[in-house]
Amino acid sequence: MLKKTIALGVVALAVLGSSAAYAYNYKFKFDMNTGLWHGAAYSSEAYKFTTDESPVVKVSTVESKVRMNFLVVNSEDEQRTDVFTTKTSGTHLFENYGMAINKKYRLKAYTDDGSWYNTYNVTGAWNPDSY
Fold first, then answer.
1. CB under 8 Å to 19, separation ≥6 — which residues?
2. 72 vs 113, residue with greater confidence
3. Which strand ranges, in their side-by-side order, compose the sheet holding 28-33?
4. Which of 106, 105, 62 minimizes the C-alpha distance to 85?
5. Which of 13, 63, 120, 126 has its CB surrounded by the most CB atoms within 10 Å?
6. Which alpha helices (DSSP H) does the chain contain, by range?
7. Is the distance from CB of 32 to CB of 111 less than 8 angstroms?
8. What is the value of pTM for the model shown?
9. Sign of torsion over alpha carbons 20, 63, 124, 28
10. What percent of the chain has pLDDT over 70?
């Protein structure tokens, strides 16, 4: 009986541990419109406060369900994360490609489908540090 109880407890912990959702701190809201000819849109600048944390994004809406790409860039528009591609709402923890503490970063959004003569709106929140 004791062995069954221990085994059930171990299985329950494994299931709970594998399905745990991470709660990130999405500090900076964005409401951006992409440009004509698939032009990029940028969020306002945000400073990175830690070296160990990766950036996060939470997309709330994507207009017309076009394929929207998100990445974090530095003040020289150089890519500093992987690219998150989505047509719907969702969250993503970016892979950090050399972001530095106390530097300014922006979230960049652009489409690679949809009409070249349309602009598309995207909303959500992000943070250069996932804490």
1. none
2. 72
3. 28-33, 121-127, 56-62, 90-93
4. 62
5. 126
6. 2-18
7. no
8. 0.82
9. positive
10. 83
